[in-house]
Amino acid sequence: MSDKPLSADAKLQQEFNRWAAAGEGEKMQRHHLNITEKTLRLMNLRAGERVLDLGCGSGWATRLVARLVGEGPEGFGQVVGIDVSDEMVRLAREASKEFENILYVQGSAEKIPWEENFFDKVLSVESFYYYADQDRALMELFRVMAPRGRLFILINLYKDNPYSLQWVDKLKVPVQVRSAAEYVELLKKHAFENVEARRIPDDTPTPDDHQTKWFKSLDDLRASKREGALLLMASKPDLRTPAPGYTIY
After folding, report:
1. Residue 109 is inside which H or E element, if any?
2. Which ranges form a coiled coil (predicted)?
């Protein structure tokens, strides 16, 4: 009798546990810091806000956010990092011990283990294209976001950056590849408002001795950085999502 095939989430968990063991979580910060810092400025984060970092990996972006929403006149901000990889969550907790305003939870983007109408802002860096059911993930994000909450999805892999498509076949898990226009329509379909797509170029120089396993050449890597990552921004309308008729967690 054949073994039951792994679910999409189980495959992601397995692959990103392998990444965690190989130290890839730390590399993500070096690779994505420039575009993430630009995104954080656009997020206009304020002390006291409640923020979700979806697909948090080893927690490097979660910690950046935690510093920005920490204690202030508006209260004590909280950041929740969620990742499908239990090993990434373990690394994130280990690296975030000095933070009192971070909580890491292992969980799926398709069934976010959190209550309705909670998060003022949502950040997702370089993970959204891994989600097998992006419709379901957006339904879940809409559910956990507060009325008028803001969503920021940052991804390097999308159709309009042809250089990024070079690494689709190198990944060991399936990915979703859409254009900026297709993502905008997808967000609108899920009732998000003020939907906008923006390019975020990566200004970090690529040294001539840099080793790349994802691109055919350093010129292609540099061209991809010039094309930039895709930042999707949207708002939840001013309405509260009712609790679902099933248990979330």
Report:
1. none
2. none
